[in-house]
């Protein structure tokens, strides 16, 4: 893959000081008082990739801040997807959407009606619940197995319940999975597609974390598995290059869902920001080197956390994530009740995401954001230990 950013291979985690990060005005750094170490919401403590800075700076200097035009984002994703995953995306089967979650809502509107069911796999990214309910659909839970993986034994009955009486239903697949960091295998996704086909459930795959797959695992795009042809996927550069504030995402239709995506109202394309599209496109076409550096840093951080927990908090169960920059910690043996994050915040001054917000299976857990310096990972464990004294 042509990638002018491929020389930028250094780990960007730790490049910014805590003083610099505390000057940020985004949610991660402003929600809690300054004595709290914030390792919660999925923002990364990194400087932007140089090609992204360059593209944005040029656009601003030129006053290129109008409305988006053309298929630049889809072309950039198609090139990235072909190079990384061997996935051929047809830009004609894509649509720009404001962000992944609003894209999910639009996809739900295409394939379901008011009151229809949407299956999710808890513990899962809490806004899945909020956006499904906000869009007038209802949630049906199919919990992950104890091993944190997709479980046909819960999916099949959930699909059956969701489609009772022949109603349309959707399945919002999180791939890779937030918060467990599970990267679904081709076999697992093929089994999902087979089940979805059997029950007539439409699959919407949230693949926002796809570029963030760590050594040892391989991302498989849902639309490439047998039976995935009538699926819809959502992708974005926002997680992997820390661009959530620069709104843009892409919906991609499998060949048998292209007619559905073609029904997307034109006004949805008014939501994404032109600057967002410029930034995301630069990340995908020229930010491969930066991403490589990031992934090496995340790989080191997930192992560092394993070592620190084994040494200092052996009662906490932790399966290092295969993808994402999130660590899902089972703290039930600490005896801190359903919401250990409350104890860690109050007594340790470290902000982690409370497990119960992730739905069934979340109680007694916390989610820790590994996209920070190794020093902050160590400091977080130190603060968690201190909270127990
Ligand atoms: C699985 C998943 N989907 C969607 C989002 C949010 O994406 P967006 O800001 O593009 O709506 C996140 C953010 O962390 C996420 O983890």
Automatic annotation (TrEMBL):
Keyword RNA-binding: no
Cofactor: pyridoxal 5'-phosphate
Domain spans labelled Aminotransferase class I/classII large: 73-383
GO molecular function, one term: cysteine-S-conjugate beta-lyase activity
Superkingdom as given in the UniProt entry: Bacteria
Keyword field contains Lyase: yes
The protein's Enzyme Commission number: 4.4.1.13
Coiled-coil blocks: none
Record's keyword terms, sorted: Lyase, Pyridoxal phosphate
Xref: Pfam families: Aminotran_1_2 (PF00155)
Family: Belongs to the class-II pyridoxal-phosphate-dependent aminotransferase family. MalY/PatB cystathionine beta-lyase subfamily.
PANTHER family linked: CYSTATHIONINE BETA-LYASE-RELATED, PROTEIN MALY
Protein name according to UniProt: cysteine-S-conjugate beta-lyase
């Amino acid at each position: 893959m042509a990638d002018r950013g491929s020389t930028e291979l250094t780990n960007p985690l730790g490049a910014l000081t805590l003083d610099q990060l505390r000057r940020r005005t985004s949610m991660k750094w402003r929600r809690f008082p300054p004595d709290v170490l914030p390792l919660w919401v999925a923002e990364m403590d990194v400087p932007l990739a140089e090609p992204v800075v360059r593209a944005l700076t040029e656009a601003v200097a030129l006053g290129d801040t109008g409305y988006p035009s053309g298929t630049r984002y889809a072309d950039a994703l198609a090139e990235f997807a072909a190079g990384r995953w061997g996935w051929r995306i047809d830009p004609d089967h894509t649509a720009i959407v404001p962000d992944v979650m609003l894209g999910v809502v639009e996809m739900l509107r295409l394939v379901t009606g008011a009151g229809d069911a949407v299956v999710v796999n808890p513990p899962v990214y809490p806004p899945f619940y909020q956006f499904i309910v906000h869009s007038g659909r209802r949630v049906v839970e199919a919990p992950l197995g104890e091993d944190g993986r997709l479980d046909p034994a819960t999916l099949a009955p959930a699909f059956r319940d969701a489609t009772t009486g022949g109603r349309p239903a959707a399945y919002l697949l999180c791939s890779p999975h937030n918060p467990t960091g599970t990267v679904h295998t081709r076999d697992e996704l093929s089994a999902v597609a087979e089940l979805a086909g059997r029950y007539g459930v439409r699959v919407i795959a949230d693949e926002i974390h796809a570029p963030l797959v760590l050594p040892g695992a391989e991302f498989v795009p849902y639309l490439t598995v047998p039976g995935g042809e009538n699926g819809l996927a959502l992708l974005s550069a926002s997680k992997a290059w820390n661009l959530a504030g620069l709104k843009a995402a892409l919906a991609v239709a499998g060949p048998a869902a292209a007619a559905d995506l073609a029904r997307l109202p034109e006004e949805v394309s008014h939501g994404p920001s032109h600057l967002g599209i410029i930034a995301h496109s630069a990340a995908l076409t020229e930010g491969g080197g930066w991403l490589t550096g990031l992934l090496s840093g995340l790989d080191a951080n997930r192992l560092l956390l394993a070592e620190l927990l084994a040494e200092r908090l052996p009662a906490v169960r932790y399966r290092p994530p295969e993808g994402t920059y999130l660590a899902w910690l089972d703290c039930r043996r600490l005896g801190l009740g359903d919401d250990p994050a409350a104890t860690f915040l109050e007594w340790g001054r470290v902000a982690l995401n409370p497990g119960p917000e992730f739905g069934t299976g979340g109680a007694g857990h916390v989610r820790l954001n590994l996209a920070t310096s190794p020093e902050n990972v160590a400091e977080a464990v130190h603060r968690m230990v201190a909270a127990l004294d």
